[in-house]
Design goal:
311 residues, Jelly Rolls, nine-stranded mixed sheet, five-stranded mixed sheet, 19 strands, binds 2-oxoglutaric acid, JmjC_dom, oxidoreductase
Amino acid sequence: MEGSLLALISQKLDDLSIEARELYLESRVPRLKKPPNPLEFYRKYVSPNKPVIIEGGITHWPGVRKWSPDYFRNKIGDQTVTVAVTPNGYADAVNGGKFVMPEERRMKMCQFLDILDKSDRHNPGVFYIQKQNSNLTEEFSSIIEDVETDIPWGSEAFGKLPDAVNFWMGDGRAITSTHRDHYENLYCVVKGWKKFILIPPSDLPHVPYETYQAAVYKQDDIGEFQIIDDEATGQVPWVAVDLLNPDLEKYPQYAKCQTVEVTVREGDVLYLPSLWFHHVQQSHGCIAVSICLIMGNLCWEAVSSTEQLAL
Ligand SMILES: O=C(O)CCC(=O)C(=O)O
């Protein structure tokens, strides 16, 4: 009885993912040539939870013209910033059967820039400024006037100001592994490019998860990275498949996912709706700002309980 009920639920979830694709999802992320008005943005993209690129959506930000390693060296070179360091570019990702988080280091911005342009050769590892605690408003407040911390058509459509504004800058080898967030994201590329691989929330039943022991990288005295268990964090459920090299023998259900690839170029904004899985690659030295708006709690609780069923 229980088995046939589970089979029925699984069939219905398969139908949902096929119907979502047929009814409203597109095989490519649409690109707008100019910013939408708030009502159009809300109706066509936010309400149906569909990503969209707004080409040139932030080209008026002074940062697009001004931001460069030299500008940062002069303006904020002496400021201390938080940097994620890994041996392989994968922070918050599975390695050797564990969910491994980066070593967080505090260093001067000029030191980070030296590492990025390879003039500091004593630092093995891949360095990425990627702290998602509204680090733009916290650690980079002296360059805040170079950007907008809220995008008017976005804030008006969501009816609220952003909860966090994050600054991202790093090595071309840094890859953000597949995950999803419960916030709405206006992802703005200020320099370089980012490549997102997206999976819609309706494909959740086909995304394989495993539970891993949490751990953290720690570089030892001879410069080698050790993986140290993080007992306080314990076990972490995480996406088990590598989107760049999926193991379909181990995770055959992943073949039912329909991934969508999109490149966000300098000056463009990607609206990344809440709950879409994303995997992110970037050009070397790419700089981005993500503007995040957290979904209401009630909505998140409703989604979580539906997801329990799917997983
Ligand atoms: O830019 C990146 O590397 C990851 C961005 C991301 O995952 C996010 O904004 O939620």
